[in-house]
Amino acid sequence: MSFQPDEIDRKILIELQRDAGRSLDDIAKAVGSSKTPVWNRIRKMRERGIIGPQTVILDAEALGFEACFFVLIRTSAHEADWQAKFLATLRDRPEVQEAHRLAGDIDYILKVRVRNARAYDAFYQALIAEVRVQSVTALLSMEEIKSTVALPL
């Protein structure tokens, strides 16, 4: 059963997506409520799994991770054991920020963040040493135009 937020829940979620590190007082003021009801709503949304763990968004380029590649993978292997090994390999690689299984000609797309092209090549070599794939195409992002994890509430 999907969660249907009311207007106050929606406002709270929008504020948390903007900056979850703000004080509860600031969030309550922004949504036009008081601290205790806002805290209770946040607690209930956490219990239901609507709000996950709080993290910090780091500046990849400032930390030296200047290359972002989108990696398109085709495979002729679709057996359960191959898929389990492939997914475990992706989970174990910290360079993989996102991984999606697709419909269509491409089986998987990965978002891979590395320091440079040599680091991508090391990632690529390790990946193909771990699992058999039919083809890999790497696309270097020249410029990040928009990046968000916020949902359009």
TrEMBL record:
It comes from the Bacteria. One of its GO terms (biological process) is response to amino acid. GO terms for molecular function: sequence-specific DNA binding. Keywords: DNA-binding, Transcription, Transcription regulation. Pfam families: AsnC_trans_reg, HTH_24. It comes from Limimaricola cinnabarinus LL-001. This is Transcriptional regulator, AsnC family. SUPFAM superfamilies: Dimeric alpha+beta barrel (SSF54909), Winged helix' DNA-binding domain (SSF46785). One of its GO terms (cellular component) is cytosol. The keyword DNA-binding applies. Residues 5-66 form the HTH asnC-type domain.
